[in-house]
Design brief:
CATH superfamily of the largest domain: 3-Deoxy-D-manno-octulosonic-acid transferase, N-terminal domain
Number of domains: 2
Shape: globular
Largest sheet: 7 strands, parallel
Number of helices: 20
Strand order of the largest sheet: 3-2-1-4-5-6-7
Helix content: 40-55%
Length: 434
């Protein structure tokens, strides 16, 4: 099986190489980590402590596993955690957030790469965030004596349909996973249909709720608010995790309202760093007073009511400075971004109509009247205007969102208990077949 997969991956890599090269030249992607990705050159772990290898694909998953890593540190300080990621943005955030952990690029699913990484890390458990069913990686973990877990598992309807085309392979993979901790019963049913063992399946809820900060006065938000000279009288409209064409829509909404509400401020946080400069060019073309986040260290410009956040990893804290929120990636085909963070702060939350990646969270928020869907720029402007004209409406919307998040807390604790039992049941010396 592994050699057939290797051949398939090599052919796929060959076919995709022109596109990968273009992305590297045009957008700066895929320019680093080749040793780790192609050869499994992960850091060599020293010592024999219990080791949990957590794999988080990109920024969203790195943020997701934060409460789980915190729980492990608090309740199992004798364990060692290492963190792998796939993208450059995920690596940058992982290194910034966990400078004391081994953070490295995950190997691609070639049999030689994953086996080399396993020999170097020697994990007792491999923990995959949400859905990363790489057959060679999972098989290598089992061969080297490690337990395998999927945490915060989700399987969208679209992904489920895709896996059904390769159901025998999906079933083969899932039967080699010791723990599948999923967000809800719907996802559990889909995993079960694909062949997951009933004994391995557990519904724990979503850890995304647990990772959200609810205190607007937390240290990170307070520091950023002071850095940007945001006063208590300001009303901040934040468009976060945005993609084209969401930045110009947010800018249009702000400009149409700015004269009537002189305390209104706009913060724009693009989803991908390679778009920071293009958004900066957009702001410059419009002739408005604006400032980059990276320039704030030299002092905030009092005339600039628009801030472009051009750094990675700060969006969670910036949400705490916002009273009105638009969650991006939801006007185009991406499928939305995490709307829990602004909801937890009690912001008045809006997002576009394309939120398939967060369907259950969106359904819960809309059912509780804790968010608003805006279909275009006109509706975005109307939403911001209503929040400005009717502060009580804005407050009610935000409080309903905050209460919903608070009611969902606890998934991390349930996930940790399952993971603790899984790792503790493993023999100390393991079964390390090479």
């Amino acid at each position: 099986m592994r050699y057939v997969l290797d051949l398939f991956y090599l052919l796929l890599l060959l076919v995709c190489s022109p596109w990968l090269l273009w992305q590297a030249i045009r957008k700066g992607k895929y320019r680093e980590g080749y040793g780790a990705k192609l050869l499994g050159a992960a850091p060599v772990r020293q010592g024999d402590r219990v080791c949990v290898w957590i794999h988080a694909v990109s920024v969203g998953e790195v943020n997701l596993v934060r409460p789980l890593i915190a729980a492990i540190r608090q309740r199992r300080p004798d364990w060692e955690c290492v963190l792998s990621t796939t993208t450059m943005t995920g690596m940058a955030l992982g290194r910034k957030r966990y400078p004391d952990l081994g953070v490295f690029y995950a190997p691609l699913d070639f049999s030689w790469a994953v086996s080399a990484a396993m020999r170097r890390i020697r994990p007792h458990a491999l923990v995959l965030a949400e859905l990363e069913l790489w057959p060679n990686l999972i098989a290598a973990a089992r061969r080297h004596g490690a337990r395998v877990a999927v945490v915060n598992g989700r399987l969208s309807e679209h992904s489920h349909r895709g896996y059904r085309w390769i159901r025998p392979l999906a079933a083969w993979i899932l039967r080699r996973i010791d723990l599948v901790a999923v967000q809800d019963e719907t996802y559990a049913g889909r995993f079960r249909q694909l062949g997951a063992e009933a004994a391995a399946l557990h519904v724990t809820g979503s850890m995304k709720y647990d990772g959200a900060e609810t205190d607007r006065e937390n240290e990170a938000t307070a520091r950023l608010r002071q850095l940007a000279s945001i006063s208590p009288d300001d009303v901040v409209f934040l468009a976060g995790s945005t993609q084209d064409p969401e930045e110009p829509l947010a800018l249009d909404a702000f400009l149409s309202l700015a004269d009537s509400w002189p305390r209104l401020r706009l913060i724009v946080v693009p989803r991908h760093p390679d778009r920071f400069d293009s958004v900066a060019e957009l702001l410059a073309r419009r002739g408005v007073a604006w400032q980059r986040r990276t320039a704030l260290e030299q002092g905030a410009d009092p005339s600039a009511r628009i801030l472009l956040v051009d750094v990675v990893g700060e969006l969670g804290a910036w949400w705490g400075a916002a009273q009105i929120a638009y969650v991006g990636g939801s006007m185009g085909p991406r499928g939305g971004q995490n709307m829990i963070e602004p909801a937890a702060y009690g912001a008045a939350v809006s997002f576009g109509p394309n939120t398939r990646n967060f369907r259950d969270i969106v359904a819960a928020m809309l059912d509780r009247q804790a968010a608003v869907v805006v279909h275009d720029g006109t509706e975005m402007t109307a939403f911001v205007r209503r929040c400005l004209e009717d502060p009580e409406y804005r407050t009610r919307l935000g409080e309903r969102a905050r209460k919903l998040v608070e009611e969902q807390l606890g998934a991390t604790a349930r996930t940790f208990e399952l993971l603790d039992r899984l790792v503790s049941d493993r023999a100390p010396e393991g079964a390390r077949r090479t």
